[in-house]
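>> Question from a student workshop board

For tomorrow's exercise we were told to take the sequence and the ligand below, predict the bound structure, and bring the output to class. My setup keeps failing. Could a helper post the expected result so I can at least see what it should look like? The ligand is S-adenosylmethionine.
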Amino acid sequence: MHDYLIEMLECPVCHSELSWTVTRSLGSRIEEADVRCTTCGAAYPVREGIALFLTPDLPRNDLWEHVDSGLTTYLREHPEVERQLMDVPLADMAPADQFFRALVLEERGMYGQAKTAEQVANAGLYTREYLACSESQFNYVIERLSSSDGPIVDLASGRGALAERLASRLDRSLVVTDFSPRVLRRNRRWLEFLGLYDKVSLLAFDARRTPFKDRAVGTLTTYLGLSNIEEPADLLLELRRIVEGGFLAISHFFPEEDEANAAAIREAGLSPLLFRRSALDHFAAAGWLMELANMCVGESIPTPRSVLLDGAGVDALPVVETVLQWCVLVAS
Ligand SMILES: C[S@@+](CC[C@H](N)C(=O)[O-])C[C@H]1O[C@@H](n2cnc3c(N)ncnc32)[C@H](O)[C@@H]1O
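>> Workshop helper replied:
Here is what the output should look like for this input. Compare the format with yours to find the bug.
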């Protein structure tokens, strides 16, 4: 993380000042530090340049931890599957297996080949309409942010589809965040490979309990981050506390009458922000003003399952074919 962030941060548990002992830095970048709350004593380390502001009190389901370690263990125990996953020509594989090959290639530091495998996989995992709607939202966000300045905080960045575009197309500092340290470590290596790491800080925190001071964040973004946050009860209040400027949330909504997907969404605890009416009600109840910009609709299908890895899936939703309504939820 870069040292400009120090004055934007506070204890995510009790909101008090932090005391910083930096033990290794490179220019303005803090590589290793021990951070402690001056009131409640909670400790937050910075390791490998990644600031870890995770609090112990919230239940978390870190899927990157499960997927990465599960995949590595499975392949170690099944060398014949590993050979098929890595040696068969890419074009002959199922899209989900192309995606899992990309994950393994990344783990081995073969980023160029990983990028190709992921691009090929995406063309088979998602419909053309899904990819077009998604790309249109990226372009809209970039265009809107190209005329302002200051750091951008990207929420629930995951593997960084939006973060990578923001870093490559805008001349602004970027804070890439997720509650999974594992995916942030992957992002560091990936952004270094792309030559984009210089302007990026990496922060691990739970979006429901962030380490930012009140109104410290000028611009907040997310690409489908809100719809991945389980039990988002106070999430929008917490985000309103920290945002001074605007929040651009690339979102997609399921049709109200889509019962099969609604049941899966309810079961995953993701209902409030995946249906348009309910999302707007939740934003309004948390005191946000908002508009839905750049609307488009596109067919979406369940991502086809792996052939080699016991039917493993890529995305949990949709569970049946549907038509998603995409937009950028612009909130202030
Ligand atoms: C799949 S990504 C969404 C796509 C991503 N924003 C992008 O640009 O590629 C969703 C991410 O949300 C993260 N996540 C889920 N719950 C979270 C929470 N409560 N706080 C922070 N991150 C969370 C997951 O670890 C996951 O990496």
